[in-house]
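User: I'm writing a tutorial on reading structure tokens. Could you give me a worked example: one chain, its sequence, then its tokens, then a sentence or two explaining what the tokens reveal?
Assistant: Sure. Here is the example chain.
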Amino acid sequence: MCSLKTGSFNVRCPFSLISLQLFAVVFILSQFHSEHALAFGFFQQPTRCFSQSSSCFAPLFAKSYDRAGDQGRARKSNHRQRTRGPPNAVNPQDLVQQIRSSRNCFELGKVLRENPSLFFSEDSIRALIPKVAELKPKMSARNVAGLLNALAKARVPPESRQVHGKLMVVLGELAGRKIEDFDARSIAMTLNAFAKRGLRNSEFFEKSAEAAIPMISTFNSQDLANTVNAFAKMDHHHPMLFDEVAKAAIPIIDTFNSQSLAKTVNAFAKMDQHHPMLFDEVAKAAIPIIYTFKSQELANTVNAFAKMDHHHPMLFDEVARAAIPIIDTFNSQNLANTVNAFAKMDHHHPMLFDEVARAAISMIGTFESQGLANTVNAFAKMDHHHPMLFDEIARAAIPIIDTFNSQSLANTVNAFSKMDHQHPMLFDEVAKAAIPMIGTFKSQELANTVNALAKMDYQHPMLFDEVAKAAISMIGTFESQGLANTVNAFAKMDHHHPMLFDE
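And here are its predicted structure tokens:
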């Protein structure tokens, strides 16, 4: 017996959650297509499977969700809000009735869209599975895309993710078989659905690219943006598709809204797809509507331009002007990405940096290690002094110092050193964290670390010994400046290491 709370309702059922998952798989695989059952080996020994523990079903779900994508979503507060519970939930029995009475995919999709908490109710899931199976033979390409889109937007608690994922997998396979019937909107919607849930389907992505290229002129701005965004989010490379999207986007760039502009350049930057003409046109289109950009869109836009090393001073000035009045709506990652982009492009804007510092201090506890490191590094690179921010970053960094990687550790002490900002406790913790992972440091990071500590006259013989050992093993990877900085740091600290100097 299980008890599942759904808003103000308490649903009791004779099935455990695992039995519901098993029921879902049996029904989907038996009703949808025998080839799925054979592929998973499900019906080869059904009695044995039911008689043993639920572990025999593990292969069915082994790749339903992309784990990295799922973990990334779990770190976001809005995802935690989505999965915390269904507010103002519909009576479960009413919802079951709505599902069962759906006469077609349009009506079923409407039920899903209007009840995003459906997957919190076991009875609703139990009604949904046979209904999808019933409608499946008559599903058009647009029906499949619509249902996948609705499923992608659903709120799914952890105990229902396997069932939800399996539904999307099976519908995804159906989408692959119907790809020739997909129009531009259906392709974009389906790709977006997979990316939103972190569900890998490389075969469909390849087929969708092949189908999209000949009809790329029929894609509107939102479809183009969602398509490249999905490919980027799933790290699925397809240079030809990106080139065609750029060609199609440029003539209609004035129809892109702020979200589509930001998504597009962010996707091209993430996939390292250079297209200067597209970036110029995006900047030209963005400037007149810059005050319609939200905080994340502003941050993503300048971050994309910086990553691609695409200079556009006017755009950066406009982004700064638009960001300052809404700086309190930026989250920690957006703040870090924004100043990091300005620093990378060597674009000075003191007022923006002051406002970022003020906003960052108020939420310093929400920064992750990379955000902390990128922020101080940006302020140091732009020679923008803000002692209070540096003190707060040090206080925030110390308790989570074990989460810093080699680059973040090196960048942090290098920034404090460049700004001549003393913080012995932070330096102690950086040294303590660096020693066990010194083998992961690159040559430039080793050089920057000892050079920074020497500049601050910070003594730590054990760290210098470990840096020497690591440096000797990779001496051929050092650039001349790095070698000079390293030996200069050892000399300044009067730290003798003949073997390093011989190398």
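What the tokens reveal: The first strand starts at residue 2 and ends at 6. The beta strands are 2-6, 9-13.
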